Amino acid sequence: MSDLKKYVSSRKITDPKFNEGYEEGYQAFKIGVLLRQARENSGLTQDEIAQRLNTKKSAISRIENHAEDIKLSTLEKFASVLGCKIEISIVLAGQDV
């Protein structure tokens, strides 16, 4: 187990508030990272994505760094510009995807 995983496991046990919001926060973080990786793999800059979505570079940065409250329609538009699509699954709580 990595040091990070050990830390997270320990913190979840000792800090109920951390444990309560961890999974939701992690999922939002992961969405932003996946969008950034897809953008970088496509060779586009944040400015170029912003122009294609008719928005500002700061909005793209916010999506990539703080995707916790992003609309599904915005995700779909972002992915479409990259030539990607969004897939969603619903999983019972506590089960790995």
What is the general shape? elongated
Strand-and-helix sequence, N→C? HHHHH
Number of helices: 5
Structural domains: how many: 1
The level 1 CATH classification is Mainly Alpha
In terms of topology, how is this protein built?
Blueprint: H1 3-14, H2 16-42, H3 46-52, H4 57-65, H5 72-81
Helix pairs in contact: 1-2, 3-4
Descriptive notes:
- The chain contains 5 helices and no strands.
- The chain is mainly α.
- The protein has one domain (3-81): lambda repressor-like DNA-binding domains (434 Repressor (Amino-terminal Domain)).
- Helix 1 (3-14) packs antiparallel against helix 2 and helix 3 (46-52) packs across helix 4.
Quick synopsis:
With 97 residues, the chain is an all-alpha fold. The chain contains five helices and no strands.
Give short descriptive properties of this protein.
97 residues; 5 helices; 434 Repressor (Amino-terminal Domain); single chain; mainly alpha
